[in-house]
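Thread amino acids onto this structure.
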């Protein structure tokens, strides 16, 4: 489903990414946090929606550094979003069909090591959190 206004590119000067998982942010205030920064209203998706978009995009990553960044983001959103892990997991599972997004994307041993190094934490901690999301 394409929710991008036909005049968006003309008005803003760029073409946005059409990500259907973000659609609820614009249709229901329960799916966003509103900030007023820089004299603007900013809508931030809930952690569950952000996490779902990261999990969805990770299997399509062709560059190693993009996959590592996704793993770091998935870990950070899962563990440091301000919500309990079980609630984040449950909410993400309600948004995204995990059967379509296999854990195999993350099975290369060095991706957890690289993500752990980037965040300054043990690779096994990263692996444990990522694998727990899929259970």
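Threaded sequence (135 positions):
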């Amino acid at each position: 489903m394409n929710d991008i206004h036909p005049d968006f590119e003309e008005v803003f000067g760029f073409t946005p990414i059409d990500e259907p998982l973000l659609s609820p942010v614009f249709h229901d205030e329960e799916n966003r946090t509103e900030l007023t920064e820089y004299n603007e209203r900013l809508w931030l998706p809930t952690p569950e929606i952000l996490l779902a978009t990261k999990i969805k995009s990770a299997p399509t990553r062709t560059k190693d550094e993009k996959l590592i960044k996704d793993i770091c983001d998935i870990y950070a959103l899962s563990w440091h979003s301000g919500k309990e892990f079980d609630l984040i997991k449950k909410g993400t599972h309600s948004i995204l069909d995990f059967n379509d997004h296999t854990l195999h994307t993350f099975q290369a041993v060095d991706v957890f090591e690289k993500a752990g190094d980037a965040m300054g934490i043990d690779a096994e901690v990263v692996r444990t959190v990522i694998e727990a999301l899929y259970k």
